[in-house]
Design goal:
Layout lengths: L32 H10 L4 H20 L44 E4 L18 H10 L3 E6 L5 E3 L9 E3 L1 H16 L3 E6 L3 H5 L3 H14 L7 E4 L10 H16 L7 E3 L2 H4 L15 E7 L3 H4 L21 H21 L2 E7 L7 H17 L3 E4 L9 E2 L4 E2 L1 H7 L2
Parallel strand pairs: 1-2, 1-10, 2-5, 5-6, 6-7, 7-8, 8-9, 9-10
Antiparallel strand pairs: 3-4, 11-12
Bound molecules: beta-D-glucopyranose.
Length: 413
Amino acid sequence: MGWPGMDLPGELSLRKENRSECKWKQPSRIYPLATFEDAEKGSGGKILPMKRILFFSFTFLLIVTACNQQYATPTLAPVPTLFVTDTPAPPTSTPLPEFTPTSFPSMKLQRGINMGDMLEAPNEGDWGLTVQEEYFDLIKEVGFDFVRLPVNWKAHTTRTGQDDGDMGYTIEPDFFARVDEVVDGALKRNLSVIIDFHHYEDLMADPNLNQFWFLWKQIAEHYRDYPSQVLFELANEPHGQMTAALWNKYIIAGMEAVRETNPTRDVIIGPVQWNAYDWVTTLDIPDDPHVIVTFHYYEPFSFTHQGAEWVEGSTLWLSTSWGESEEHKRILTQHFDLVADWAQRHNVRILLGEFGAYSKAPQESRIRWTEFVRSEAERHGFAWAYWEFASGFGVYDPEAKVWREELIKALIP
Ligand code: BGC
């Protein structure tokens, strides 16, 4: 669906799915871009990953059997069905009845903030921010009730296995200790915490079910005794080779890894295509009352990502405004209606896990958009988490040590 008045140059990158190759080009970020690109090139498209997955899935099954169930075996789907490499057509947008809030399963979470650019960097601090315990005081005092913690687990693994690495990645104890410290800091202030698996680019470039399962097994075991205020999110914004059908298999494996040790912890899953709202319909929701579905909202992308250094061509979008026309609001509402309608039919809770407009967007429009997205999320019964606390979309200025007044009011009036 088009946004009136936004037929701008650079149309190509209007959705996140079109920009995987340039997503990490923030100058302040030292993300190993080459690794991701090389992995994609090296995979030769589909054939190499397919062979690898076949080989390692088979090897994994053998090892597990041989080890006499030393690790609980995830019920892997028959191997060939894992290889759905064609991206299915986007879900059809059939006209939906007008949304009327009804009996939504209730949410413990309500208003949250993403601790972006901190533990999601390859090393905490690489992107200019580290988690300070005092942040949680501020966050609690201003009225948020939870934080979403993007964590780059994969960057903190040591390869210890003998099986070409599929199962051999062990999360470093020091890193666990640091994440614990942060999680404890939030819990102490009575903030719930979503532990999110962020920037798992290897998984998107060359999916590896056994590795995914094994990493989640470790995380789940580690946090098994934590209170229910700690939630898990299986993967941020699946994309690339992670197609909808394939991702549904990974969800099954991830859930099994978690459920072995955390039978009732809330687990968050979001759809492929960078968690786009209109892809929630492709999710096979596990038959489990402790699942929450998430989506991210950055529409229109040419508005929210104008001038974003890591989105090629986005300077052409500078000065794009939003929301002077009622039509803009109507479109956004329709998007949320689609998610809410689907959620009601599936009786599942929804988290709008990320939304935000970059600081280079015209301020008036930025505030209007943020306020409208937040209030529509609440009207639709979604919990929400703003992207993000103190970086390029930030609602808090870490140098001046003040909240950005208009923005915080748009979130918490
Ligand atoms: C990414 C961030 C990015 C944001 C907005 C998040 O999911 O992890 O790096 O800045 O989306 O594009």
